[in-house]
């Protein structure tokens, strides 16, 4: 069978040597097949024309081969132009940066596309099954608790005289301290919500303060998602101004991962309660074992177990099978690990930002303070206002 001419031409071109020196070519560079060395030579020297003088000490017709290509830069550069290499194809520094930015932008779009596809898949599974589809999974008592969680959260935020829940940041915040200070009122309302959780309210006040402080990063992150502030342009600008492009990108990916849970009115609120009882490593500190500082560790574990089991039964009621529930949990754990990674990175960032921490309101200084002794200095909890609700 006769080979296709176009295929034969393509194969033969791949085997052609460098047009400048005859070495093995790596591809088409600046319009011509060249080796890596001649590609670098042309990029480095073509831009110097008119700035420095290239001189040939022979007769201006030196032989340029793989062995002798370094003998005469003048003749080598002249041959580069002679075989067709184009100076106009050399990118300036700004053009290189623009190309890098475009590559990075496309990479982010691919990541966000994967997340959106994943979100749609989970959403379609959950929306296909209402609570009535699996009545045995949730008892009437479970449904009362879930209803109370939803209405309690909505009530504590609706009672406060501030921006509607879905409003975005009014201003573009340009520093870390202003970014967190803007959230003070929302954080205080979040504390009011936790004080209305019976198991949390029964804990010793010092344990409540330590739990909120240790888990503040993930709780703050999820609460901002529930309030739907993370998708507004002012919020995105504030992230970039406060944490830089790379840090802001990591945080935005975490918000994207949480977005798949926002369609459900209860799920993220329930997860937030579970996280509030967590004794794991959710804060970047020098403490080796945080469990030793709690007064009633057993009660904390018991409370966490109650809500973890409730979460399982709730998901089991929304999904078609135990296998689907396990898959959902696996996906959820991956998102939790990503969120923990992001929050630890923010804590490390704050550890180097003591000046900004000093400019924060006292409440947030008490929580975000990056001092190695921050978990031991817990006696002054007046700003956190976690006293018992009667």
From TrEMBL:
Stretches assigned to the Nuclear receptor domain: 15-92
Q: Name one GO biological process term.
A: positive regulation of transcription by RNA polymerase II
- Keyword Zinc-finger belongs to the record: yes
Q: Name one Pfam family in it.
A: zf-C4
Source organism per entry reads Adineta ricciae
- MF terms per GO, please? nuclear receptor activity; RNA polymerase II cis-regulatory region sequence-specific DNA binding; zinc ion binding
Q: Does the keyword NAD apply?
A: no
Listed Gene3D superfamilies:
Erythroid Transcription Factor GATA-1, subunit A, Retinoid X Receptor
How is this protein named in the record?
Nuclear receptor domain-containing protein
Keywords associated with the record: DNA-binding, Metal-binding, Nucleus, Receptor, Transcription, Transcription regulation, Zinc, Zinc-finger
- InterPro entries in the record, alphabetically? NHR-like_dom_sf, Nuclear_hormone_rcpt_NR1, Znf_hrmn_rcpt, Znf_NHR/GATA
């Amino acid at each position: 069978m006769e080979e296709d001419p176009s295929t034969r031409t393509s194969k033969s071109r791949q085997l052609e040597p460098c047009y400048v020196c005859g070495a093995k070519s790596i591809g088409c560079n600046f319009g011509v097949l060249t080796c890596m060395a001649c590609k670098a030579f042309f990029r480095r020297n073509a831009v110097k024309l008119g700035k420095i003088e290239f001189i040939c000490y022979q007769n201006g017709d030196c032989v340029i081969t793989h062995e002798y290509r370094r003998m005469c830069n003048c003749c080598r550069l002249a041959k580069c132009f002679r075989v067709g290499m184009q100076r106009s194809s050399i990118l300036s520094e700004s053009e290189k940066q623009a190309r890098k930015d475009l590559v990075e932008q496309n990479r982010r779009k691919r990541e966000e596309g994967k997340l959106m596809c994943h979100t749609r898949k989970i959403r379609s599974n959950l929306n296909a099954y209402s609570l009535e589809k699996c009545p045995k999974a949730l008892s009437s008592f479970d449904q009362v608790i879930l209803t109370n969680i939803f209405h309690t959260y909505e009530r504590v935020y609706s009672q406060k005289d501030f921006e509607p829940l879905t409003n975005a940041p009014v201003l573009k915040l340009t520093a870390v301290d202003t970014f967190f200070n803007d959230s003070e009122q929302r954080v205080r309302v979040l504390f009011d919500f936790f004080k209305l959780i019976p198991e949390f309210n029964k804990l010793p006040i010092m344990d409540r303060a330590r739990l909120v402080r240790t888990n503040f990063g993930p709780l703050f992150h999820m609460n901002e998602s529930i309030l739907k502030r993370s998708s507004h342009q002012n919020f995105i600008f504030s992230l970039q101004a406060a944490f830089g492009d790379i840090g802001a990108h990591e945080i935005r990916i975490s918000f994207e991962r949480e977005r798949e849970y926002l369609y459900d009115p209860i799920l993220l609120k329930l997860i937030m309660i579970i996280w509030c009882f967590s004794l794991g490593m959710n804060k970047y500190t020098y403490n080796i074992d945080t469990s030793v500082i709690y007064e009633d560790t057993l009660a904390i574990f018991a409370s966490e177990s109650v809500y973890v089991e409730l979460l399982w039964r709730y998901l089991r009621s929304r999904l078609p099978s135990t296998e689907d529930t396990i898959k959902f949990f696996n996906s959820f754990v991956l998102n939790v690990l990503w969120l923990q990674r992001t929050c630890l990175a923010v804590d490390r960032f704050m550890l180097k930002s003591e000046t900004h921490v000093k400019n924060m309101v006292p409440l947030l200084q008490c929580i975000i303070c990056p001092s190695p002794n921050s978990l031991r200095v817990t006696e002054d909890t007046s700003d956190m206002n976690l006293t018992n609700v009667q």
